[in-house]
Amino acid sequence: MKKQPAITEKTRQSFVTAFWALMREKPVSKIAVSELTRVAGYNRSTFYEYFLDTEDLLAYAEEQLLEQMKRVIAQIPPKDNSPEAAFGAVFAAMNEEMYLLIGPNGDPSFLSRVRQELVPLIRTYFSIPENVPNFDYLICYVNAALFGLLQHWNRNGRDLSMEQFSGLMQNLVLHGLLGSTAEAEETS
Q1: What pLDDT score does 14 carry?
Q2: CA separation (Å) from 13 to 52, 61, 127?
Q3: Quick one: residue 176, left, alpha or beta (phi over 0 = left, psi -120 to 50 = alpha)?
Q4: Any idea what the Cα angle at residue 120 is, between residues 122 and 81, rounded to 5°?
Q5: What is d(CA 130, CA 127) in angstroms, rounded to the nearest whole number?
Q6: Are 131 and 121 in contact (CB under 8 A)?
Q7: Residues 6+ apart with CB under 8 A from 174
Q8: Is pLDDT of 136 > 50?
Q9: Mean pLDDT for the chain overall
């Protein structure tokens, strides 16, 4: 007897939801199938009908988030907006699960994949030519700064508005630490 697609998807999503609930409590590497099945309300054999192991479930959940991010990025008009608006749209679309995965208990390989998705946006909105020397280092710098700021902003309960946060991020990327502090001193 073949399962109905709606039921199959509902069961699969129950495991994903259980995964996120457990990830709020512990690192991804510490989540066990037995916990997932208990939280999702299914038995182990049902879990294995849908996923090979917790790594397979993690990959499935990550792919869902990356697809969501790609859809948001695809809707951003090329260079029609300010960098604050473009990156603000991406950050606004980042949900709690995304922050869990890019946070200290998350998956470093996921963060790498997210960074790769942002390279074209960074290149476009910060006008970085492809043939600039050490392009990969520049992208690495921007991404490290960007995700460090994102993690800090999230830990602080997103205490800045999206506009303030995006403006701060753009200012730091364009002017660096010393340029940003010099501007702050001039305005005060």
Answers
A1: 96
A2: 15, 9, 40
A3: left
A4: 60
A5: 9
A6: no
A7: 126
A8: yes
A9: 84
Integer Rg of the chain from CA: 20
- List of long-range contacts for 64-69, beta carbons under 8 Å, 24+ apart: 64/16, 65/95, 65/97, 65/98, 65/101, 65/110, 66/113, 66/114, 66/117, 68/93, 68/95, 69/93, 69/94, 69/98, 69/114, 69/117
The pLDDT of residue 93: 79
DSSP 8-class letter at 29: G
The predicted-structure confidence for 65-89, as pLDDT tens digits, reads as follows 999 888 888 888 766 666 777 777 7
Give me the pLDDT at residue 16, please. Answer: 95
Please spell the DSSP secondary structure of 55-123, one letter per residue: HHHHHHHHHHHHHHHHHHHHTS-TTTS-HHHHHHHHHHH--HHHHHHHSTTS-HHHHHHHHHHHHHHHH
Using the structure block, give the residue that is written with the tokens 């009908």.
Answer: 49
User: Considering the entire predicted model, what is its pTM?
Assistant: 0.79
Confidence (pLDDT) at 1 = 43
Give the Å distances, CA to CA, from 8 to 12, 63, 94, 138, 175. Answer: 6, 18, 26, 44, 50
Read off the amino acid at residue 100: L
Contact 102, 90 (CB under 8 A): no
Q: How many other C-beta atoms can be found within 10 angstroms of the C-beta atom of residue 73? A: 16
Neighbour count for residue 64 (Cβ, 10 Å): 13
105 or 22, higher pLDDT: 22
